[in-house]
């Protein structure tokens, strides 16, 4: 059974992650899993520069290092449990029957990759706990997570608002066409008015837009189409603000890594300047 | 890609650079000492250490492991250098690298599972003893000054960390003793007396040897043993670093990485090397965790040696000996001595046999080979005892006896299996029930045939039950570990 997975950490965004996950759970009628990952590589490393090996130095070093890890992990485990308990009671309060709590050791990216199969939607905060207080930034892990996962990912900012109006950033790419079909079929957006927005003007794009509008209208969405001009990211976000849109849906990382290296990635810019949740489709 | 590059290399900048510097400083005396063991100029070992360190930083499978010129390898090349000279050593080094890459592709790293813990302990202890023994020639036929210097050096190495752990104590030992010797103008043997030091960056050179079958005959045996020993030590070190840092490594990638490093080393005028247990532990202890620590250690070493060559040649051998004694003491597994009373006698015998064979032959490959064979024999002997035959008469005076065989029947327990039957008892019929036993090889099947024939010759009728279940283990590609129900069924009777 595929689940809504919410990444919970100690950041202020965790409560929002929980709220949006609950929203998705209730719309999709899917089970909720609250996940907390204990990443050992983030612990500071002790360093002893004496450069010598004493009698039995190898064995004592192993004991020393493992005891240090044991202490840190015990604390982190407990802390994580508290975070998960907090998130779980929040979810229960909002009406989710039995949120599942999971804690795993390892890197966030590998852990999520390992859970890919059972994931329906992944909900993750835009900023992790290590970045608390930094403005307009994207957490270290978020981009890596998006690139690794092949499931929809909901990246959420630090405010919650019940999504009422959604916007689909449309570029005519295969991912985006898949996105349109998904949007049309998914109970996640059932009955929500949808703005179909593209940047640029050419004939092919207009034809694609017509197709997308038909598909969405057939599934009962109220559709509004707009074609914008200018730089993709500012144009889209401007439109989103002007029209009071609560959630952006878009394809993620469509171009080759080489192009991204020179031109920069639209997806990265979109997430960086996001003020509403973005649902990224792979 | 950029993310993983950052993760693998630059995510731990400060710890890695500091640890790399500490390791580089510790590598210099070792590389010189191992060159002297091998009978080549110190620059051969120093170039090798630079080259192997840098290449394994990129190509290796275990981040934060330190590879360089090592004692284990140096001991194997003594004969080749003495009889044929440096050029043949360089060619053998390249060949070692090629063989190691082959081993990597053939996934021979997986064979490490046959090397038991006792053998690993024996290997480490033998290595420590050999490094220590190699220092003794430096201490014979010298003036009393040298002994005092070694003692003072060891004092600095072991006592300084009580005051501060901010500077590497072996470095302080070398600087203090060198400074003292130069200031007093003492006539003691120095590193400069042992041969050339690097005066430039290493250059690409093709080994100056005739490319024919005869050459191959000379270098192949040495290269082959070096391949085995190099990979053994590298795999063991990788496991040690894995344990210390609680992370995983790619063993077969490490095999190939060692190979590439040795090929580079051979062409740049360096000797063959492998991972170093002591230095890798020092790296982790100093806070090195990522590939950058290894890269930095190699580069820093070369810069130090090339630019400070004049000073390095002034280092008294006594200071070097003190550092190497520290290395051998730190490498030795002192726990293994106290463990002798706690561990089973067979594991102690395996450990001691590995040590003895290695120290006697100066060849770690032979030591490990003997250790592995011994542990396999001990294991076979032990499992052969997991075996039992019980019997009872069907009814009193009925002339029908039922034998039930339990446990493992194979070459070590086959004789015992035959001996468990009483052929002299006059019976009309025997039933041999083997469904709760395992017949592992054809020796076992042969033994069963023999039992049946013996009974028949006494005029007894034989009924055999459950042979199919018992001989399921006979097939060579016997694999049940991935099928839990199959294992359940197999072990169900026990």
From TrEMBL, chain A:
Pfam family, one: Usp
Ranges where the UspA domain occurs: 4-157, 208-282
Domain of life (superkingdom): Bacteria
Family indicated by similarity: Belongs to the universal stress protein A family.
Protein name: Universal stress protein
Organism expressing this protein natively: Alcanivorax jadensis T9
């Amino acid at each position: 059974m595929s689940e809504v997975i919410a990444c919970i950490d100690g950041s202020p965004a965790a409560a929002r992650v929980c709220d949006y996950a609950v929203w998705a759970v209730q719309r999709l009628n899917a089970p909720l899993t609250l996940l907390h990952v204990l990443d050992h590589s983030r612990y500071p490393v002790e360093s002893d520069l004496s450069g010598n090996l004493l009698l039995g130095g190898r064995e004592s070093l192993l004991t020393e290092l493992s005891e240090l890890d044991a202490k840190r992990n015990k604390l982190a485990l407990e802390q994580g449990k508290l975070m998960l308990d907090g998130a779980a009671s929040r979810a229960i309060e909002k009406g989710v029957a039995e949120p599942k709590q999971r804690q795993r050791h390892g890197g966030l990216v590998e852990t999520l990759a390992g859970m890919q199969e059972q994931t329906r939607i992944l909900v993750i905060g835009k900023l992790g706990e290590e970045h608390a207080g930094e403005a307009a930034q994207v957490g270290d892990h978020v981009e890596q997570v998006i690139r690794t996962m092949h499931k929809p990912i909901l990246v959420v900012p630090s405010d919650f608002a019940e999504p009422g109006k959604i916007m689909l950033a449309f570029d005519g790419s295969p991912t985006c066409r898949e996105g349109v079909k998904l949007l049309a079929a998914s109970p996640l957006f059932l009955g929500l008015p949808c703005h179909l927005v593209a940047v640029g003007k050419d004939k092919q794009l207009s034809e694609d837009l017509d197709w997308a509008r038909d598909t969405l209208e057939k599934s009962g969405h109220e559709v509004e189409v707009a074609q914008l001009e200018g730089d993709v990211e500012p144009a889209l976000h401007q439109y989103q603000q002007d029209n009071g849109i609560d959630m952006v849906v878009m394809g993620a990382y469509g171009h080759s890594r080489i192009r991204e290296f020179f031109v920069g990635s639209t997806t990265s810019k979109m997430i960086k300047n996001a003020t509403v949740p973005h649902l990224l489709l792979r | 890609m950029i993310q993983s590059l950052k993760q693998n290399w630059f995510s731990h900048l400060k710890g890695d650079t500091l640890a790399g510097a500490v390791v580089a400083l510790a590598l210099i005396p070792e590389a010189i000492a191992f060159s002297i063991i091998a009978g080549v100029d110190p620059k051969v070992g120093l170039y090798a250490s630079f080259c192997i360190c840098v290449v394994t930083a990129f190509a290796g499978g275990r981040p934060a492991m330190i590879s360089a010129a090592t004692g284990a390898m140096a001991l194997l090349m003594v004969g080749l250098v003495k009889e044929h000279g440096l050029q043949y050593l360089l060619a053998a080094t390249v060949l070692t690298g090629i063989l190691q890459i082959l081993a990597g592709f053939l996934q021979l790293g997986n064979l490490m599972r046959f090397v038991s813990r006792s053998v690993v302990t024996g290997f480490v202890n033998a290595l420590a003893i050999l490094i220590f023994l190699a220092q003794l020639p430096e201490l014979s036929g010298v003036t009393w000054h040298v002994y005092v210097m070694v003692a003072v050096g060891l004092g600095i190495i072991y006592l300084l960390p009580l005051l501060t752990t901010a500077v590497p104590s072996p470095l302080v030992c070398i600087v203090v003793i060198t400074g003292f010797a130069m200031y007093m103008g003492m006539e003691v043997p120095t590193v400069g007396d042992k041969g050339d030091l690097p005066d430039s960056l290493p250059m690409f050179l093709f080994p100056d040897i005739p490319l024919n079958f005869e050459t191959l005959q000379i270098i192949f045996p040495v290269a082959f043993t070096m391949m085995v020993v190099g990979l053994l030590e590298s795999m063991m070190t990788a496991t040690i670093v894995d344990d210390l840092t609680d992370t995983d490594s790619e063993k077969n990638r490490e095999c190939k990485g060692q190979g590439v490093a040795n090929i580079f080393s051979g062409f740049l005028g360096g000797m063959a090397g492998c991972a170093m247990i002591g230095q890798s532990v020092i790296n982790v202890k100093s806070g090195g965790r990522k590939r950058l620590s290894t890269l930095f250690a190699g580069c820093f070493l070369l810069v130090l040696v090339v630019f400070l060559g004049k000073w390095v040649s002034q280092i008294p051998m006594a200071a070097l000996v003190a550092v190497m004694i520290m290395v051998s003491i730190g490498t030795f597994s002192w726990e293994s001595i106290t463990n002798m009373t706690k561990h089973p006698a067979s594991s102690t015998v395996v450990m001691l046999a590995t040590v003895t064979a290695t120290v006697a032959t100066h060849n770690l490959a032979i030591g490990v080979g003997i250790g592995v064979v011994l542990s396999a024999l001990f294991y076979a002997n032990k499992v052969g005892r997991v075996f039992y035959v019980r019997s009872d008469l069907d009814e009193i005076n009925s002339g029908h006896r039922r034998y039930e065989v339990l446990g493992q029947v194979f070459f070590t327990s086959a004789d015992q299996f035959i001996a468990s039957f009483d052929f002299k008892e006059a019976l009309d019929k025997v039933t041999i029930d083997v469904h709760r036993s395992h017949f592992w090889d054809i020796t076992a099947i042969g033994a069963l045939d023999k039992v049946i024939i013996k009974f028949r010759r006494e005029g007894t009728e034989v009924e055999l039950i459950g042979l199919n279940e018992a001989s399921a283990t006979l097939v060579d590609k016997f694999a049940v570990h991935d099928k839990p129900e199959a294992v359940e069924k197999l072990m169900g009777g026990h």
